[in-house]
Specification:
The chain has 261 residues and is of the alpha+beta class. The chain contains ten helices and eight strands. Strand 1 and strand 2 form a beta hairpin. Keywords: DNA-binding, Transcription, Transcription regulation.
């Protein structure tokens, strides 16, 4: 894969716009806190109350923030923007029916994830009849090294790009099973390339097993990954490396064919 196809994840602006930064800081604060008042937002952001109020008034005018009583919360305008962004992505449009079919066939949770700025972003998930309800949702960001989806993507990025991601985001051990060193990561990624699919065995959530396959273009550029997740007590090693892997690989292959041809 050509490095020209891979955007840099160095997002440090040389001349950041302070007003924009403050507005986004308030958005992040509201996303973390949920509904809260001007005083709480001022304390959390380090801004004055009048400045916070001015930013909130502007966001409210355009539908990005709503006011309920004396408190503010994020508005559904963000859902409109996110939905439009996702709908415009060819990978999502092509993969959506395959993800739903995979969930129906397995009865478990099927997922689609892409990489952005060195982290994994869930584009969608579909629940089968037996699927457990996890903390994942469209838009959730996660460390790539802790998921089968992320490892399926990392395995098909240039080594220097993987190093860049590790340097930026680190290798936090989210659970005792998580990868925690560069050597361990690169050894695992080599196994993923040899096998054709990646496995997450309780590396992000203990008690959960996941199998994932990459989705690539005809020029070998990795676009994202597809997975099935299920409780560990329902997935044996034989299931993981036989029936489930075949189903996930087949779904990824169908998506690749539809995108490439």
């Amino acid at each position: 894969m050509s490095d020209e196809c891979v955007p840099s994840i160095d997002m440090d602006a040389k001349h950041p716009v302070k007003t924009t930064e403050k507005t986004l800081a308030l958005v992040e604060e509201l996303m973390e806190r949920g509904s809260c008042g001007v005083t709480e937002l001022a304390e959390g952001s380090g801004m004055g109350k009048s400045m916070v109020h001015n930013h909130l008034t502007t966001l409210r005018k355009y539908g990005y923030v709503v006011k309920v009583g004396d408190e503010y919360q994020l508005g559904l305008k963000f859902l409109e923007v996110g939905g439009h962004t996702r709908k415009s992505m060819e990978l999502y449009e092509v993969a959506e029916p395959e993800i739903k079919a995979l969930a129906d066939e397995t009865g478990e949770l099927a997922n689609l994830l892409v990489e952005e700025q060195g982290k994994g972003v869930y584009l969608m998930r579909a629940k089968g009849a037996k699927a457990v309800d996890l903390d994942t949702h469209a838009g959730l960001r996660t460390y790539l090294h802790t998921t089968g989806l992320g490892k399926a993507i990392l395995a098909h990025l240039p080594e220097e790009r993987v190093d860049e991601i590790v340097e930026r985001h680190g290798l936090e051990r989210v659970t005792p099973q998580s990868i925690g060193t560069r050597e361990e990561l690169f050894e695992t990624l080599e196994e993923v390339r040899e096998r054709g699919y990646a496995i997450d065995d309780g590396e992000r959530l203990e008690g959960l097993r996941c199998i994932a396959a990459p989705v690539r273009t005809s020029s070998n550029e990795v676009l994202g990954a597809i997975s099935v997740s299920a409780p560990a007590n329902r997935v044996s090693d034989d299931d993981l490396h036989d029936e489930l892997s075949k189903r996930v690989l087949n779904a990824a292959n169908v998506v690749e064919l539809n995108i490439n041809y």
